[in-house]
Amino acid sequence: MPLQKNQIITLPIERLSGDGSGVGHWEGEAVFVPGTAPGDLIRARVVKDCRRYAFGIVESVEVPSPDRIPADCPVAGPCGGCSLRHLRYAAELQAKQDAVADAFRRIGGLEVEVEPILPSPEVDRYRNKVQYPVGLDKNGRICIGFYAGRSHRIVPCGDCKLQPAVLNEIGRFLCGLLEQYGIRPYDEASGEGLVRHIFLRRGAHSGQIMVCLVCTRPRLPHAAELTAALCGRFPAVRTVLVNVNPDKTNVILGQENRVLCGPGFIEDTLCGVPVRLGPLSFYQVNTPGAEQLYGVAAAYADPAPGDLLLDLYCGMGTIGLSMAARCRALVGVEVVPEAIESAKANAARMGEAIAAKSRFFCADAGEAAGRLAAEGLAPDIIVVDPPRKGCDAATLAAIVRMAPRRLVYVSCNPSTAARDAAVLAQDGYRVEKVQPVDMFPRTGHVECVILLSKLHAAQHSEA
């Protein structure tokens, strides 16, 4: 009998889903309930039934899991950013490990060695980027926070435990300055107001901080006074900008930036690669975690001095450039023009020798890989780091045509990675091993690195 909306059921939670919700079964039907832990016995209220699966919310926890802990953030539930803050970190890691293994077994149909998950070097305060929506609290005062799940209702939060304390302090300080100078937040319903978001970046190694106010117009009242107060209070602030987004949209950033002070960017390093970061730069939000992730990718790639390395979906070029000194040549492909310009600049900052052996060009990964394959480019190693949807069929086909002896697949979505690995396994590649890496503690997301080697290759990898 199908579940009914608002029906109350008693449900044992068996595991976690990819988004961090608990999963139980009611008469064979999977029920997804956020805020639960494997081992919980709960009473759940059904909020939606989709015939083969349903969604619920917790009415009460009848028997708590031994892995359940009190959430140490007062807004962890309504905020939704930390979907696993109620779970011991060891249990979180185990759930992520199981999710990766399940994806490769169930979706990929692959029996493959899944290495023990690598924990994040930092469990709290690890994010180097903050995007606070700005609004009014229940008392009509300017506040920052985060959107509640599936809404644009701001849950005020002055001290997010995923962000460095100094970035939270800057956010609170800016709220006071906006109040002081009568600068109003943007209201989505009326279209009135000026400040939409406070966007902050901090270099994990350099300590430099970028402050960016996302506004509906380029002119910020009292900009000089606000900037002077901000830089006087926080000496690590290297640059302050206004990003202009006049559109009625869910997209946070616009394309126009107006620099109020400083160079308009901050500097940092990632795996020894010097980078410059502006508001529009893509950059991994967990720097120590990214260095761990890319370290695994480099170990799996294991380039030799005579190798040609092809880096698809290269972004700012960080993964490939971190290995460039160990190979003969590097080719990077990325569809975002600004990222390619950053990759070229990063290579130049690494010195003449690295710049001379590195080539980056802007193209769709599938089209570029097909063109390179048609030109007879024969990379010894290919590294791919696609978006969550994974590689398209054209990219996978071109990889097979180019026939690298080793392929390293970096993924933020184990399900699509397992799907793509299964396709490659049918086309002459063997999945050697899979390394889960926790880049986003206290959330349901997990990264993994997959090593695939060409069967019957002259230099077949047994790493």
UniProtKB/TrEMBL annotation:
What are the protein's UniProt keywords?
Methyltransferase, S-adenosyl-L-methionine, Transferase
**Molecular function per GO:** rRNA (uridine-C5-)-methyltransferase activity
Question: Which Pfam family name is an example for this entry?
Answer: TRAM
Which InterPro entries does the protein's record reference? MeTrfase_TrmA_AS, NA-bd_OB-fold, SAM-dependent_MTases_sf, TRAM_dom, U5_MeTrfase_fam
Enzyme Commission (EC) number: 2.1.1.190
State whether keyword Transferase applies. yes
Q: Which GO terms describe its biological process?
A: rRNA base methylation
Superkingdom: Bacteria
Annotated catalytic residues? C412
The entry marks the following residues as binding S-adenosyl-L-methionine, namely Q284, Y313, E334, D385
Where is the TRAM domain positioned along the sequence?
2-60
Tell me its family: Belongs to the class I-like SAM-binding methyltransferase superfamily. RNA M5U methyltransferase family.
The name this protein goes by in its record? 23S rRNA (Uracil(1939)-C(5))-methyltransferase RlmD
Q: Which organism is it from?
A: Candidatus Faecalibacterium intestinigallinarum
The uppermost taxa in this organism's lineage are: Bacteria, Bacillati, Bacillota, Clostridia, Eubacteriales
Q: Which gene encodes it?
A: rlmD
